[in-house]
Amino acid sequence: MTVEFIKDLAAEVFKTVMLASGPVLLVSLLVGLLISFFQAITQIQEFTLTFVPKVIAVFVCLLFFIPWIASILIDFTTKLITNIPIYIR
Predict the structure, then answer these.
(1) What gap in Å lies between CA 60 and CA 84, rounded to an integer?
(2) What residues contact residue 62 under an 8 Å CB cut-off, 6+ apart?
(3) Do residues 58 and 28 touch, judged by C-beta distance below 8 A?
(4) How far apart are CA 50 and CA 30, in angstroms?
(5) In principle, which of 16, 34, 39, 43 could form an S-S bond with 76, CB 3.0–4.6 Å?
(6) How far is it, in rounded angstroms, from Cα 83 to Cα 8?
(7) Is the Cβ–Cβ distance between 32 and 56 less than 8 Å?
(8) What is the rounded CA–CA span in Å between residue 40 and residue 49?
(9) Which H or E element spans position 88?
(10) Chain segment 13-71, per-residue pLDDT in tens
């Protein structure tokens, strides 16, 4: 294994993680931002007001994106397993 090989593999892992977690993190960020604006405007500082809508939004996002996330993870895992002979040289 060379340094370039490890660097390329780490880049592929990072790309896969960002693609798999990106939609959920983006939805959570947007919902949190909207709720923060609402709290700043109304001066309501309730913890459950931020927590519950974020959890619901993340679950709905996962419901819609889980097939896409699963296909990304399956493709990465398949490529990783099929390239094991190359990795151990």
Answers:
(1) 36
(2) 24, 69
(3) yes
(4) 12
(5) 16
(6) 13
(7) no
(8) 12
(9) none
(10) 999 999 999 999 999 999 999 998 998 898 888 777 888 999 999 999 999 999 999 99
List % helix, strand, coil for the chain (3-state, nearest 5).
Answer: 90, 0, 10
The type of residue at 2 is T
Nearest CA to 66 among 17, 21, 15, 28?
Answer: 21
> Residue 35 in contact with residue 50, Cβ under 8 Å?
yes
- Span between the terminal Cα atoms of the chain, in Å: 7
CA dist., res. 19 & res. 22, Å (int): 5
pTM of the model: 0.78
